[in-house]
Amino acid sequence: MKKLLFPVLLFGTLMATAQSPKWHVAATYPVKGDGKWDYIAINPVTQQLYVAHGTEVNIIDKTTGTEAGTIPHTEGVHGIAFAPRFGKGFTSNGKANTVTVFDINTHQVQAEIATGGNPDAILFEPFSDKVITCDGAGKDLTIINPGTNKVVATVPLKARPETAVSDGAGHLYVNLEDKSSIAVISMSTFKVEKEWPLGKGEAPTGLAIDTVTHRLFAGCDNKLLVVMNAVNGQVVTTLPIGDGCDGVAFDAAGKIIFASNGEGTLSVFREDSADKYTSLGTVPTAKGARTLVYDPLTQNVFLPAADRHSGPDGKPVIAPGTFRVLAVRK
User: Fold this and answer.
1) Would you indicate the residue range of the signal peptide (predicted)?
2) What is the DSSP annotation of 26-93?
3) Are residues 247 and 126 in the same domain?
4) In terms of domains, do 50 and 167 share one?
5) Buried-most residue among 50, 106, 116, 310 (CB within 10 A)?
6) Where is 254: in which H helix or E strand?
């Protein structure tokens, strides 16, 4: 963990920080199991939370935290995506190099699809009606037809794709972690059209988009959130965030940007306009709470986390019985 340096410098067009954050951890939901975790998602049909957790996906009620089921045998699972029109959900299984297909209502497993090496982030892309995995070890994208459960294309990137977002109009934007850049993919041809450097941002992880102002928000390993013009790739500004960011979310209605930081904080900004941003403060969460999902229905931010302690060899291990999901709200 890197030490924080104070005072924090404000970059670009960042405005004065609000006196105190309005968001806080309002609820904590214990989750069974002690394995490693990664992304968290919301099923748009059942409105349940899905948490990638070791070798399974935990499904919980987002209001009460009650366990609602699991999707088993997803070795090294990273993420979950949903294709409501096809009645299916998908998990990216990093250690198995596969995607598991399940029924979006019953969670019943239907199929398993081979992907590139170590599929990490996964999403359903609405323009092409395809499911896409970001294959970290393969340094490519796997494009899946959710109707047939078949791979229809592979997009070589020559870099590690961390996560991706769609503008819904034919373009996919992909964080390239080891090149500190964003690749632009045509969802008509499944080919790389452009690659844009992130300026001062290094090793991007989380990524979100405002499709109205055409702005990308890339959380970077050097404690910066880079705001980029999604039309021409110009860096608009950089905003200071916490250490260990692995997730960025955008509230389209409230124009709020959230960056989840593994150090145990949530950085919150308001998009005043396409080129003007105000810090709304830093919310204490929990160490390890590095990924997130924003729920527009409840206006909650959900973050998985667990405590760690030193193992027999001195290396940090997950403390049994501490895995949980935090609900942050106003």
Assistant:
1) 1-18
2) EEEEE-S--S-EEEEEE-TTT-EEEEEETTEEEEEETTT--EEEEE---TTEEEEEEEGGGTEEEEEE
3) no
4) yes
5) 50
6) none
Q: Give dist(CA 90, CA 191) in Å, integer.
A: 23
Per-residue pLDDT of the chain (330 residues; tens, 9 = 90+): 333 333 333 444 444 344 444 899 999 999 998 888 999 999 999 999 999 998 999 999 999 999 999 999 999 999 999 999 999 999 999 999 999 999 999 999 999 999 999 999 999 999 999 999 999 999 999 999 999 999 999 999 999 999 999 999 999 999 999 999 999 999 999 999 999 999 999 999 999 999 999 999 999 999 999 999 999 999 999 999 999 999 999 999 999 999 999 999 999 999 999 999 999 999 999 999 999 999 999 999 999 999 988 778 878 888 889 999 999 999
Q: Same domain for 23 and 63?
A: no
Residue 224 contacts by C-beta under 8 Å, 6 or more apart in sequence?
Answer: 11, 200, 201, 202, 238, 239, 240, 241
Q: Fill in the amino acid letter for 285.
A: T
Task: For tokens 């997730």, name the residue.
Answer: 247
3-state secondary structure (DSSP) of residue 177: helix
Mark whether 29 and 45 lie in a shared domain.
Answer: no
The residue with tokens 């935990």 is 58
Verify that 152 and 27 share a domain, yes or no.
no
Residue 247 lies in a domain: yes
What domain range is 265 assigned to?
12-33+198-330
CATH of the domain at 248: 2.130.10.10
The structure tokens listed for 107 are 């969670």
> CA–CA separation, 138 vs 121, rounded Å?
13
